[in-house]
């Protein structure tokens, strides 16, 4: 019997351990390439962005770069240094940090960004959303803590196979992410319905574009969280959940950049190209108004909340 035949007998069902890791890392790298393009577009078009938003974007891009490099080290450990070694295929190596801990930090930051946006839109629509924002924040923190703890435990036990405690932590993380994503999307849909009533005004067009994109991107991340949750619940003794979990962090970071870069297409649709790429506020001719005044359009929720309270949104 050849050595190749012997090794295939030593590791039965090896594809169940290799496919989730390999596919997850490959899709992770693919989405990192998309993130690089989004990051370049952001830096080129918004060099005078507010400092706290720049800090958020640069920090997330740095964390995702570290995560991408460490996932490459994981791939080398599993499929090169550990080739034909079944024990190494179920050993986390650095994935406890780059997959669980860094992924939890990125998802928490992005969800808190959308909470801030909901808060600002709530002020604009005169809707009290404080308790909803607090609820989403708590769910986001619970999900991040669940991922943090699961990563630490996976490092301590040094294996992927989910035990009872890891099962609870992983499911807690995914349930919390799913609920927070659904709450963000539903609240944005509520604002979209209210804004739609005033359709025809330029400011309404801008707000509708912002809200629609936020709903769509949050539904994508929520769907992947649900897929990962289902895999954990249905296959608790397998590592199939690693594939969607590897993708989830990059989806969150791309969601943030797409949301910020969406201002470019909004400006183009409003025929204000070249005037507002470096600003958070756009001023355009009033159009239907007979006076020589200008309507102030809020493109994003980067200004302090006190600033928004002073900005009128013209009725149609």
UniProtKB/TrEMBL annotation:
Transmembrane segments: 26-43, 55-79, 99-119, 131-154, 160-185
Keywords linked to the UniProt accession: Membrane, Transmembrane, Transmembrane helix
InterPro entries xref list: DUF6534
Domain DUF6534: 181-263
Name of this chain's protein: DUF6534 domain-containing protein
